Amino acid sequence: MVVRRALHAGSWYAGSKDKLRSQLEQLFLDKEFGPGELPASLNQQDRSIIGGISPHAGYAYSGNCAAFTYLNLFKEKIPDTVIVLGTDHMGYNKVAILDEGEWETPLGNLKIDGELANKVIGISKTIAPDKSAFFGMLEEEHNIEIQLPFIKFCAGNKDVKILTMTVGVRKNFQILERIANDIASAIISSSKDIIIVASSDMSHKNVYNETQFIDFKKYDQDVIDAFVAFNPEKTFSAASKTTVCGTQTITTLMLICKKLNASKGKLLRYYTSHDKSESFGYCVGYFSGIILK
Prior knowledge:
The chain has helices spanning about 15-30, 60-75, 115-125, 150-155, 175-190, 210-230, 230-240, 245-260, 275; strands at about 5, 50-55, 80-85, 95, 100-105, 110, 130, 160-165, 195-200, 205, 265-270, 280-290. By secondary structure, the protein is of the alpha/beta class.
């Protein structure tokens, strides 16, 4: 059994089961930066929220923002599978899928949906199984791992599976369209309830005064506005002009959801590390947004 270890447990987020559960509860219940409520499913028959953006910094900074995304994705009903579109900070320039095994979390492991993985691989000429994108030299990559405790926490007692992908292609809209079509086709051919998460922080930049901070937020707002307008091309263009690290994951998410008959995006929460620390210096933006039919 292939198991991707939780390498960042104990640093980016709490490392033990009890401490992590307590940390996640606090992130959800926080009324200043978080949603102010714990996740709870309505067990509805139908789903209108099919995808979302979730940041991937240390939980002390981005965790409240991520809580908004998962609260909403799991509210209507608990999905069968969550597709996590991971970005690339390590120089991987292809599109990879992990087609077997499990990801470790302190709350319990999450199994790969091998059936869905095989559907994607069978359809796509661009997405390939490649363990090197998740292990070895690239095992330190954090952005997918950061999402998984949220999934496990919100799933409760249900055995939710995941499908993890690394999207290393940054500046080619046509390739993103191609892989989005392939993933959407696999979802449509499946009888499962599947949602998609794009892992991405927003801009990263040194900010030394209030004027620079206002400019910093404007660049992020341009991306958010295009997302809410549900315009993948405009979102891709706006994000490509920034230091948003998941330009390709956000765009791919939107293109998949468009194929699944989504009609709009919605802003849930946006804040920055400066808002959290109240000090100038290196600043990162965090955005939670969902896509609805």
